[in-house]
Amino acid sequence: MEDNKDKKKRENLLTQEKNIPKKERPRKAKYTEKEFRKLQKEIAKLPAPSFNNPEKAQPVQEVPKPILNDLKRNDLGYGGLEDKKQKLTDPEIIIDKPGAKLEKLHRPKKPKVLRKLFSFLKPNTIHLILCLIFSLINSVLELFIPILSGKAIDCIIGPNEVDFEKLKTIILYFSLVVVGFAFFRWLYVYMNNILSYKTDRLVRIGLFKKFNRVPLKYIDGSSHGDLQSRMINDVDEISNGFLEGMTTIFDAMVSIVLTIYVMFTIDVRISVVIIALTPLSVFVTAFIAFKSDKYFRRQAKTLGDASGMILEMLGNQRIVKSFNYEDRSIEKFEKINQNLANQSEKAMFYASLSNPFARFINGIIYAVVAIMGTLEALTGSITVGNISVLLNYANKYIRPFNEISDVFSDLQSAYASSRRVVNVLDIENEVSDENNEVLKRCTGEVEIKDVSFSYVPNKKLIEHLNVSVKKGQRIAIVGPTGCGKSTMINLLMRFYDVNSGAILVSNKEITKITRASLREKYGMVLQDTWLFNASIKDNIKYGKPNATDAEVIRAAKMAYAHDYIQTLEHGYDTIVSEGGDNLSQGQKQLICIARIMLTKPPMLILDEATSNIDTRTELLIQNAFNTMMEGRTSFVVAHRLSTIVKSDLILVMNKGNIIEQGTHQELLNKKGFYYNLYNSQFSKV
Amino acid sequence: MKNFKKYFKAYVKELILGPSFKLIETITELIIPVLIASMIDVGVAKNDTKYIMTYGAIVIALNFVGIAVAIICQKFAAKASVGIGSSIRSDLYKKINTFSHVELDKYSTATINNRLTHDITRIQQAISMFVRLVMRAPFLLIGSIIMAMTIDLKLSLIFLVVAPLILGVVSIILKATVPLYDKTQKNLDSVSNVTRENLQGARVIRSFNKQEYEEQRFENATKKLARSSIKVSAVSSLLNPVTSTIINFAIVAVLWFGGIQVNIGGLTQGQIIAFINYLTQISTALISLANIIVAFIKAINCGKRINEVFNTKVSIKSPEGAIGVITEHPMEEKENVNEKQTPEESEFEVEFDNVSFAYSNTAKNAISNLNLKVKRGETIGIIGGTGSGKSSVIYLLPRFYDATKGTVKIKGKDVKEYNLVALRNLFGIVPQKSVLFSGTLRENMQWRKPDATDEEIFKAIKISQSEEFVKELDGKLDFKVQAGGKNFSGGQRQRLTIARALVGNPEILIMDDSASALDFQTDANLRAAIKQNTNNMTVFIVSQRVNTIRNADQIIVLEKGNVVGHGTHKELMENCEVYKEIHDSQTK
What we know:
Radius of gyration of chain B: 36 Å
Strand order of the largest sheet of chain B: 6-9-10-3-11-12
CATH class of the domain at 1-151 and 288-315 in chain B: Mainly Alpha
Oligomer: heterodimer
Number of strands of chain A: 10
Mean pLDDT of chain B: 81
CATH architecture of the domain at 1-151 and 288-315 in chain B: Up-down Bundle
Structural class of chain A: alpha/beta
Distance between the termini of chain B: 63 Å
């Protein structure tokens, strides 16, 4: 995987640098569609108004979610340069080496990756076929342009030797071909785009559904930034690389074959010479690519180092200041920067050679054709018009070769991306529960019978746990931070399945009932609040979309959220901003509680979310919790003494194990771990 | 853009010579079509093999000249662009290191990182493009038109129509796509957001069984995206067909009017071919030109962003003739320090004299009218809820921020009178966020005192209660710490950051809520060890836990920036409601 990523980075850099020369390729009569599109994208990305209005354009304070924004900007692969760059500097990618985990889990074989991809093309087969047909028509028409202009030139021989009648007809044909070419060119590109956007959508929906159906361990075990980047960047890369790549190759092949055919019909000797010179071009291009590749790889590595250092130092600039570390930090940076300069100068130089050399070889072929053509014209075996056709083809003939070699690197990175996407798509779904019974009535009894569980096979966690909970009981789970309290929640909700033993709810084994019917019996409030980007009302209604406004308000009142919601400018219609920055942690938590108040589930799971909340709000939340717990079986991850002492059963966890259980008094009498914990944490030292 | 002048000045040679060499290449490119035209016109017409061979040889030779000068030009381009980029990067990094917390608050890390990497790369690319293309594209454009004019003035009118027409069409299409792209961008943002929400809320979504609802949301978002993308492409894919049609119709015009000219003997066949050649050349030159303009606009925007950093005024600086404090290890700036002005002993180590502080002019006061006098060797506890201004108090001591009202004094002198390096050397600071840096553990421990010996380091490690696990580390002090200190547990990391602050015996130790990851026993041991081993060290402890500060000599209770209690634990339990409330919430 490491290799692949490096490759990707390198290729990103490559495309980034190659971009500039690509666009100038001046000898070509036509520029490729791709270059055009890239250019447009670049222009589109310009903050157009800002050019005239610099003050407005320079927001001093940037949005606080840098990673997300980087991802966003990546979108659509908006023209290579910026975005690919972003990927490289994306802190998550450099520091976390994302995806490493997923890739370790499994690695599908090549044919499988391709088969999977083609399955996404199937619904759009018509578009694909149309696309290829248009491309074919377009290539044929394109070839006729120089032929016709050559014929036209042959009508213009010299004074009084101009055949106007013939010229008129040829010009008419020429015009028709030109218009037809333009039209089919447009259709072809348009169709190609439709095809890729539709495919993008299908792949993305496939991914999204996957996210919702895989066992939670995959979501927990991988970096979200990475999954998101697969969703956005990699899918983009696939359509950019594969679809455009395939059509470009098809296009190029067609025009190579047709060009060779037409050239041969005009003049065999000259055609042979042109074809003989092809390897020269290929060889030189390959040599330059090899050279620049080497330096780009080094540059990518140094850039990674530099970025890592920048993120580490600048991210902690306050600590740097505290320790007067500035000078030492600058010194370190200078070293990396110098190294980076050395590498990039070489990389840039070699990469920038590819165009002049392409021009050079083209120029040589051009000259050879001109010399041979004119010499043959002396013997009368070729017309001047045909020389111009050949000259034109000499230019055109090399272009598809260059295009194919360009596309090749795109294809490589598209393949790497496809694998990253297919990796996710290939994860097995949760065990199906279609045929399971639906749990209708729930009394709130929970029985944990001889349960063992561990996240990692050889690292034992919960072993032979037995807990019996009666209706309406309150279970407290206590222990030092990071002791694995959330594991209990994961098992109860069946986010994870037990390794052995069973959990019974109302005497039904939870693996025998549908997940949906099990989960709806629980109301869950987690430490990390989760609200989505919609109004407060919609967020409260999340578990019961058809609730009336009156119900919503009642639930909010019970959650002690009503008062503050009313003070907001738009009340219940206030939109929770992306990430919920417009509400405090405590306010968000109260909405989460209101959400549960509305659904009134028979059982509760509460992860007391008060660690970052001020004392006042904490009291409110505590009251809300208490109201909620009345008459309901509840599992509470507890920080507060009052909650614990009043519990019917206390589970004491440490390092993932439940080491003691009982009531407060029983546990105190035991004088074990809980006794110590209680004394150090809760009583006066 | 004044700031950038000096960088360009250093590479004047490359910036002038590069384009000049490029010019030579461009000239060869312009000459070649003329030569080929005369090969046809003169050579074929006169049946002159020698003429054709000579001209052919010249064309090939010109190609070699072209590639040679191109290589030189590219070399200059790479040298100038990378050189300029890297000096800007280096200076920018230096500038950022002079920033105080006030300026750092303005720029997020991602912003600064973007400017250091991405923006500078952009500028580098623009410079490289400048060297390689600035002469080429306009010269090809103008050159082609002039060459066409010399062949036939009337016929070259076609060029004068075509060039602006293409430029116009290109800019119209590009302009039309901009709002469409914006919309697409927004739609993509929402796809991205739904994904993020879905991943973050996986548990909640599953607990409410809302998977299908979420999928519906996502399908709608992607549908919008697909629609707007297809719309953009319908317009943007017009660009190539339209421009090529214009060029091709120009060719039609050349053929027809050229034909008329040829018929009356005003033009030759070869000249018509040359005309067509120049036509295709200007179309590519125009595209190049559009590219350069785009790159420049971008580079200018990047330059502005960089300039903004360069122009940021640093608000907290060492005053001139600052008071030096004799520090245990000399720093560069010590030369400027006037040691005679070493402050006379004051009764108080630290004084807050009616201090108020706000993070910006518009913000509410984070601290209001704080008064506090601390004797050397005292321990001060600061407690309060989140956002109560606890940390703000200690930020004022090493001048991370300056008080907006009142004065903060150390050893009887206003902190603003100290040299910054000397001032900060007085402190050992344990930040809220426990971060270690990549490198060896020793390097990390030498942050406060670069020449600290292993013995000194171990002493600090012992006090910070880290000895036990440090002894078990591979290579002990040579142990490789990963970025951020990720290869330590939260508690270990926190203890190591405490050790880091203790190396070299700071006079004042500041612990900013930095025992939160420690269990209570370790916390207690730590405080005891600090008391025993650090002679007369003044200690500030910021905490949310009553236990951590209950033994402090003075406790300040803050709420919304106001001091609502000040005294010992015992006193506060009797007369401070807020303190009692906090205490009770943690113990009952």
